[in-house]
Amino acid sequence: MSNLPIVKIVLELQSEDRPRVRNAPMVLVTTKLLPITDLHGEALLVACRQCVLCHYELWNAGMQDWEISCENLMYYERDGKIIGVLHDFDLLTFKNWTRCPLPRPGTLHFMPIDLLGTGGCRVPHMYQHDLESFIWVLTWISLQFSGGVRQNPGLLDHWLKADPMICEARKVRFLCSFSTYTPPSGNDGIWHVAKNSLHVLLRRFRQLDQLMGDLNDAFENQQDATSLRAKLVEHRAPAPATVFAEFAGALGLQVEQ
Length: 257
What we know:
about 260 residues; mainly alpha; Transferase(Phosphotransferase), domain 1; three-stranded antiparallel sheet; 8 helices; globular
């Protein structure tokens, strides 16, 4: 995976014999990186998939609290190959650090729906949230860019003119109607992958609604709801491997067995 040499350096920098200070100054000399939005077609998908795979490895290594956005996904070329790179480690924490209770910063149109409605204060940040942000990034590029150029106007410009609660409502509406959107010329392949991923995301929200409805019915009928509560907890906080496997096919990821 593309970022793993840098990942190794960062992991070594937080070893047990070094103080762990959030937002400490750090200098990493790397290849010049370019915005992922400069890419289009299969090259863009290659870079995005590499970033998703690298993020999954980093999360499992304990590096969490990412801000996934277009600006933080970069790339470079080497020997004619596109290499996707995760950028901006400023907000990163490790899973054994004490989390800050303040609202999580983030770019609204890439934030997961769960965190938009609460400002991120009362919902634990989980792997599924970052993977959802990757899907919103892919959706944004599919509908807002063409050939690496930002469209003006863009189909999703109204997401930019909203507070978190309004952005949440607009994303929910979009999730129920995304199949009606037509991407700019040349983005059919990217939009196909984005739509497949959005279908999985929509299915998860519908499953949650069904579980909530079944649980309410059980309470009203004074039935034992133990198994339903367990399913609800599992659905709301699935293991990273479960979420990754659920979306891998939609994103076109080649997962090693």
